[in-house]
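Thread: "does anyone have the structure for this chain?"

Original post by V.I.:
We have the sequence but no experimental structure in hand. Need at least a predicted one for the grant figures.
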Amino acid sequence: MKSKLLSGSLVLAWLLASVAPAARAHHGWGGQYDTTKEIELTGVIKSVQWTNPHVTFKMLVDGGKSTEKLWTIESNSVSALVRMGIEKTTVAIGSTVKVSGFGPVAGANFGLFMNHMLLPDGKEIVFLRGAAPRWSDEIIGNDDRLHGKVVENDINKRPATVFSVWTVVYNDNNSHGMHVITPAPAAAAATPAASGMAAGATAAMTPVVGADGAVIVCHDTPAISEMGSPYPMELIDQIAKNKTVVMKVEKDDTVRVVHITAAPHKAVGAPSLAGYSTGVVDANKKKLTVTTSNVLGAPEVVYTETFELSDDRNRLNYTVKSTKSPEVRGRYWQYQPGAKVMPYGCTNAK
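Reply from O.Q.:
Generated one for you, tokens below.
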């Protein structure tokens, strides 16, 4: 990720915007799309931008007519669509398709958030999780993985340690975003900005387009805030190699390095978006405790995180708190066979 000098207020603002407790909040639909009704369009697919945070299609409607318009059609994230069985090659450029979805709110210059697409062969892609088919009985798009219904039934084939790829269960707010586990006492409760903790709000996720036309989808965001994102993450054991644990979060292609040591936490180096993290792993590698400080913009704030394998080895439970508040927040990820942390597609990464 790019690094810039960020003020403490900017860091806290990003922390406030890091958690998506529900799908609609994640997509920012309230400020972009009118979700009270669906509209239908028929046109020709001109391009496919297969990048996060949303896959984007360009579709020409009424080509050659006075009413001709090139629509921008948004869908879900790459990882979500792949888990639903929808690939980039599922929709061919040049195809004439029918789509339905939520149009822009009055006065907004967005396109369409697509829920369904009818292909030339009569098959229908259901892009919106939880949605029923609209036109066809031949369906592409299954949200069982997104909703946590695909699991490894044999416990002996599930992870025996915290080191694995972990996925979000989208229909469970205990997984899809952070929730309060231990609230701050009423008398001592701090405002979200003062606590330095993610508060459950989220910013709109529409991609930013650079001067060269490339979609710029990654942001200069404190890495610890990405732990609240609705994307897969992976813990990688490199303790024997160099006494580190590597965290990879799909959101913004985030990488965090945890230095495994029994010594008291002490940050080194200049403040950065990732900060400086030390950690301790228990003997069975079923629990990782991480201490982080030196986060750019708020280097004095110390964060304590725990990653713990559930007894059934199907979940990774997570908690986080900071020295700015006694409040503890948390979530969980689920193990799904074959899951991967995919490239987020940062065009502005260095």
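V.I.: this helps a lot. The helical segments are 8-16, 23-27, 29-32, 78-83, 173-176, 192-195, 239-242.
O.Q.: and Confidence is low (pLDDT under 50) at residues 1-27, 190-206.
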